[in-house]
Amino acid sequence: MRFMLLFSRQGKLRLQKWYTATAERDKKKMVRELMQVVLARKPKMCSFLEWRDLKIVYKRYASLYFCCAVEEQDNELITLEVIHRFVELLDKYFGSVCELDIIFNFEKAYFILDEFLMGGEIQDTSKKSVLKAIEQADLLQEVYDYF
Amino acid sequence: MALKIVKGSIDRMFDKNLQDLVRGIRNHKEDEAKYISTCIDEIKQELKQDNIAVKANAVCKLTYLQMLGYDVSWAAFNIVEVMSSSKFTYKVSCSQLQLQSVDAVLITTIINSVSLPLVTQDLSSPNQYDTGVALTGLSCFVTPDLARDLASDIMTLMSHTKPYIRKKAVLIMYKVFLKYPESLRPAFPRLKEKLEDPDPGVQSAAVNVICELARRNPKNYLSLAPLFFKLMTSSTNNWVLIKIIKLFGALTPLEPRLGKKLIEPLTNLIHRALDLLYGMVSKKNLMEIVKKLMLHVDKAEGTTYRDELLTKIIDICSQSNYQYITNFEWYISILVELTRLEGTRHGHLIASQMLDVAIRVKAIRVFAVAQMATLLDNGHLLTGNMQRNGICEVLYAAAWICGEFSEHLEDPMQTLEAMLRPKVATLPGHIQAVYVQNAAKLFATVLRKQEGTTDSLAAQETSQLLIDRLPLFVQSANLEVQERASCILQLVKYIQKLQQKEVEVAEEVTALFAGELNPVAPKAQKKVPVPDGLDLDAWINEPPSESESEDEKPKAIFTKEEPKHTRPRHTEVDEKELARRREARKQEQANNPFYIKTSPSSQKVYQDQPGVEHIPVVQIDLSVPLKVPGMPMSDQYLKLEEERRQKERSERKKKEKKKKREKHGRGRRADSGPESEEDITPAHHVDIVTEEMPENALPSDDDDKDPNDPHKALDIDLDKYVYDVQGNLQDGSQVVVSVIFENKTDHFLKSMEFNVLDSLNSKLQRPEGSSPHDGLAVPFQLPPGVSNEARFVFSVQSIVMPQKLKGTLTFIVKTEDASTHEKLDFKLHFTCTSYLITTPCYSDAYAKLLESGELKSSSLKLEGVIMPFHHLLARICFHHHFSVVERIDSCASMYSRSIQGHHVCLLVKTSNQTVSIDAKCDEPSLLGNVLDEIKHTFSQC
């Protein structure tokens, strides 16, 4: 996976994770362009599209678009599953997650993503173990904050 | 060390934090660039300091600047440095930033030289999560140099005791390989080991990495095929399976033998997918799904797989009583299409579906009959390959449907002709039998049609056709066919004789097959009421003697129960009679399309239990619709009633809501001042006049109840007061207390003096020159029954804690003859909420504020809150001076600011009576107190 973006229907970027080094300017351009493309699509349209030399897999959950860019040989369906699993993780962690959770606890959203994906590859498919790792990290942070 | 930290945090107070930066940028709209360049200079200064907290603060500000589009790559060095701090949060934010700033090629060398020792230090940290963060961070900014230097370290981590580290290490190796391919050779054996790691997470990580590697160069990984094969057959993790299959996809072109081995596990997987389909269908997508499956059926190569697909299609369509089928014509066409499959074993399945649908869906019969007639007409196509039997079973159904519903046939004569072709004799016996029987039915229909016209010859010709063709079946080796054919042949001969005498026979012939066959619901038997006075358990005749039943075979239990259902003389019939009946019944069964024929094995069992065998089957003619209602009628009424009630309830609720909203709206208008205005002057303060007090105004009840209260003794309800504490926006250290005095006595009150015992933190502002113990004169007098308001200004230093101030009010009560000096004690409660000021905040600014990472978080859970969500929000807004930033369904973000500029952010969520509030604030103790106060507010309702 090249990168993952979360943005709202209004075109506000909520989370971005790049798995390949990209120049800042390019990133901005790509994000802007991609958001335009994805937001213009109708709800019944396919979740996959070819964009530049990449394949874009996106899915809308309520007001949030989860958008992944994968390479030519990657499987779109599993990418869709990855997105869904990430959403499930968020949902489990925050408890009926919504966009506000991601704004409010954006660092947690990054934690979860980092525990789930690493370098663009799935790190652990088990929801339980991902959430366990996050809980542990939370605990650790609390301890630090305490001192 | 501790001293240093303290010193550092004091230093920090003078630094600009992120909020200041954001605020500053917004205030310098005209010369933003200039402002930012000064800020950057400051940041550079901060980065030069020792204190890691200062640096972290600087880095946070950099994050914001970078977000605005400023280049911060010059700070990469320091970012890496902050990353080495022991604080977990810093690290994570840094690894985020690191990734974003790494693109500048210029600085990679700096990173290499600096981050190496830092990262290495983290990698060997005793804390697994530190190491984990280091690895996560590293995964984002691996450079060839880093990869080279760290490869061996990471390799060691691959055998870490903690699976958490192992899986991260395995995954990061992929990135390392990409940047530094030389590391692949030494690392590979260990990576291979990880494929069999006991931890599934590590295992799937290893599969992932190897699959990704193999995609680029499959040849080198052929040797792993057996291992993957084992994994594929043993693993239950779908994610891993998909990856492995993709890998095999890359490997099979190189090793053709692999393909054969894969067939079985792959079909297993496909079956699993098919099972999923079963649950996926709905009315909307059924046709689409079946269409796709039909395509696969056409393409499928192996018969087993094709048969599997076929059964799945039928299963999917027929599930829960054809619930998802909206168009039965479509379904019949699908079934007919399926008959074109060569060599399927599931002819009988298709046949039973055809019968089922044709019988149960009356409206479809015309269409079904037409389709079946075509099938019969093309029967020779289906019978082409008899060895594989299978599909010719559908002719059984086709013949029966055409015969039974022959009135719908367009050209019965042609169908009759088709059913009596010599080729039919090659069909299996039971099918021939149905052909013969239904040919007779068709004959009846044809006769009726032909006799209606004046052409009597045609009718005779039809009879002649039967007389010519039936002898072929009379010679059949199958007893059933033979018997039926000869019976019908004689009948037709007799009819022909009558026809020759010009007697109209059609009516009588049709009468032979009169009566419609109705489907019987599985539960139909149960629903037949037991007639009054019938005791099913009572013996009808004398019970057979004990010895008799003992003489019987061990299966006596069955015969004992038997009299319940049958007349006792059945037990007395001899074997011959039994055999005869059995035969008769079989014949009956053959005629009955609903009867599932017993398989040979079960028949054997039956022979051992003659008792069961000859229980007469009673056909119950119940007109049952396609869907058997699951509930008795009364239940349905109950359901309707319930729905109606619910509707009423919800309407009532709506009304209530409306009322409440109105009430609330009014309340707000009366109570709140123009809070959103920037320059609130003390004159605009919220005045609370009514007895409905907000929760932040807590009159000191306990003092009123004091038994030593002089007014109690006097038995005069002297006066009462209500107060409101309000912060002053313009001065971060001032609050204004508005007090409303109401005289409830019958006497005149004058010379009121308000005094408060100052605390270190909060002081009443007195006119210059007065001593700190002097009281303030209330600038009015109170006639009986009158109320008035006075304001007092307090200066406050710290606002993070709530405060209680003790005070006294002295006054003179003037009666007609005398005046007495009186005193009233009270307490002023300065809640933390009263230091908050409703401040609007836009969601963008809000998001940026949270992104700063400066805020401490805390949370609160409220159980059993039954008010609607918008009431809850309104309550928080009203009582605690928050404003809603954004609301999505049952989740809302809220914001407020203290008079000293603390940001307080809330995320309120509700789900069945539980409200969770996540809160963030730059001042933890203020936050804690505000949350306590919110909790208190809701505990009172």
Automatic annotation (TrEMBL), chain A:
Localization per Swiss-Prot or TrEMBL: Cytoplasmic vesicle membrane; Golgi apparatus; Membrane, Clathrin-coated pit
Assigned keywords, A-Z: Coated pit, Cytoplasmic vesicle, Golgi apparatus, Membrane, Protein transport, Transport
PROSITE patterns: CLAT_ADAPTOR_S
Membrane disposition: Peripheral membrane protein
Highest taxon of source: Eukaryota
Limits of the AP complex mu/sigma subunit domain: 1-140
GO molecular function: clathrin adaptor activity
Similarity comment: Belongs to the adaptor complexes small subunit family.
Subunit details: Adaptor protein complex 1 (AP-1) is a heterotetramer composed of two large adaptins (gamma-type subunit AP1G1 and beta-type subunit AP1B1), a medium adaptin (mu-type subunit AP1M1 or AP1M2) and a small adaptin (sigma-type subunit AP1S1 or AP1S2 or AP1S3).
PANTHER family, sorted: ADAPTOR COMPLEXES SMALL SUBUNIT FAMILY
Name under which the protein is recorded: AP complex subunit sigma
Organism (species): Denticeps clupeoides (denticle herring)
Gene that this polypeptide is encoded by: AP1S1
TrEMBL record, chain B:
Amino acid composition bias (Basic residues), ranges on this chain: 654-667
A single GO cellular-component term on record: endosome membrane
Region of interest called Disordered, as start-end residue ranges on this chain: 535-608, 637-683
Domain AP-3 complex subunit delta, first and last residues per copy: 573-719
Membrane topology label: Peripheral membrane protein
Tree of life domain: Eukaryota
SMART domains found in the cross-reference section: BLVR
Summary of the function given for this chain in its UniProt record: Part of the AP-3 complex, an adaptor-related complex which is not clathrin-associated. The complex is associated with the Golgi region as well as more peripheral structures. It facilitates the budding of vesicles from the Golgi membrane and may be directly involved in trafficking to lysosomes. Involved in process of CD8+ T-cell and NK cell degranulation. In concert with the BLOC-1 complex, AP-3 is required to target cargos into vesicles assembled at cell bodies for delivery into neurites and nerve terminals.
Name of the protein this chain belongs to: AP-3 complex subunit delta-1
